[in-house]
Amino acid sequence: MSCGFSKLFDREHDPSAVNSAIGTRFIYVLPPGIGLQCLYKTSSPLTPVRGVEFFQGTLDSTDEIESARVFDTTLRDGEQSPGTSFSYDDKRQIASILDEMGTHVIEGGFPVNSDAEFEAVRDIASSTSTTTCGLARVVDKDIEAALDSGVEMVHTFVSTSDVQIEDSMHATREDVRERAVESVERVKEAGVTCMFSPMDATRTDEAFLVDVVEAVSEVGVDWINVPDTCGVATPGRFRELIAKVGDHTDARIDVHTHDDFGLATANALAGIEAGADQAQVSVNSIGERAGNAAYEEFVMSVESLYQTDTGIDTTRITELSEIVADKSGMDTPGNKPVVGDNAFSHESGIHAAGVIENSDTFEPGVMTPEMVGAQRRLVMGKHTGTHSVRERLEERGFDPSDEEVRAVTRRVKDYGAEKRRVTVGDLERFAEEAEVPRRTEDESEREREEVRA
Ligand SMILES: [Zn+2]
């Protein structure tokens, strides 16, 4: 790490996490008073930061849902991301944070898969206070392995769409219904909570889906998960489907949505609006193909947009996201909602000036960086305006006239337009070349504020 930015974080944080920050820009941490919290904090505050009230205006309506539970499948579906494999230690570490944050269910993995997987699921189940879930096909050895691992919930699944029944399972609808019922019966007989998934529900013949849902409900299934396995749902259609499933079962409903069209979180929320109690999500939305509904998007939408308390400590979301990115080997794009480097960054003149005055001007208002343990940043580059440059120069001890601010801003923009780094050294050099006078130096201020390009 060659830039000075690391100094800001070295003492308590993993500097490698900072390396992924924006490559060619000048990143400046806003001073206190605009409301900041350390980006890489590793412990939660005594009082979790809660949502800010929804803004008055066109969309000021927050009574659609009363509650929403979070079922995390980072360690199961998330691990099925091509190229991703979590070690035993990775799983334990991620599970322990999810547990401390108050996640309602942690799907630890697929116990029949391997000894290491079995041990990870077993040890997560015994060491966490939340509900641990193990996945099982509707196959005896899978169900027994899941039960033997000591999980509080077994999630058993079978394809119900004709395309998967025929070309993946090579079975018949009758086999599917029978094996589903037998598997649920076995889990219930063992006294364990049972979740059943009709896999590929959104591409399943509706009458058959209802038939299977009713059959497993009759033998006492606790949860019906409705998976949009191939990501083809839309919010309106999914809402109707969840309502329909609800008409045919007394079990609680859970939804599992995929992001092939970028609709996973929207579909999960539509499911909750339609009466589902819980959504399956993964941190950074990792998972099969384009991934799952994102933990961070779902939780923050429920908390901020729906003004509904999940009970989850959202201030650890940034930390959780970084650990999962590291362990999964999947980088988080800068423009990723909630957890991307740009989620609370501002460069363009009007936005940065507005945010300096009041962060609500160009941020959602109902979601702040503090709420997710992140940090608001001003980024200097091609789109920087004079307001930001003046702020930065004054903080560096300069006392510029309007004309000098404009001159330095031109240099910053030109430099940024060439995709070059605009460091604090560059900014000072531009100021000196423009002969901007200095106020009395405050060395401690200088020490505190570091800049990275
Ligand atoms: Zn999935």
TrEMBL record:
**What Pfam families has UniProt attached to this entry?**
HCS_D2, HMGL-like
Q: What class of enzyme is it?
A: transferase
Per the entry, what this protein does is: Catalyzes the condensation of the acetyl group of acetyl-CoA with 3-methyl-2-oxobutanoate (2-oxoisovalerate) to form 3-carboxy-3-hydroxy-4-methylpentanoate (2-isopropylmalate).
Q: In which pathway does it act?
A: Amino-acid biosynthesis; L-leucine biosynthesis; L-leucine from 3-methyl-2-oxobutanoate: step 1/4
| Protein known as | Probable 2-isopropylmalate synthase
Q: Where is this region: Disordered?
A: 427-453
- Keyword Amino-acid biosynthesis listed? The answer is yes
Give GO MF terms, alphabetically: 2-isopropylmalate synthase activity
Organism superkingdom? Archaea
**What sequence ranges are listed for the domain Pyruvate carboxyltransferase?**
68-318
| EC number(s) reported in the record | 2.3.3.13
**Sorted UniProt keywords:** Amino-acid biosynthesis, Branched-chain amino acid biosynthesis, Leucine biosynthesis, Pyruvate, Transferase
Family membership, please give it.
Answer: Belongs to the alpha-IPM synthase/homocitrate synthase family.
Q: Mind telling me which SUPFAM superfamilies this protein's record contains?
A: Aldolase (SSF51569)
Which CDD domains does the entry link to? DRE_TIM_IPMS
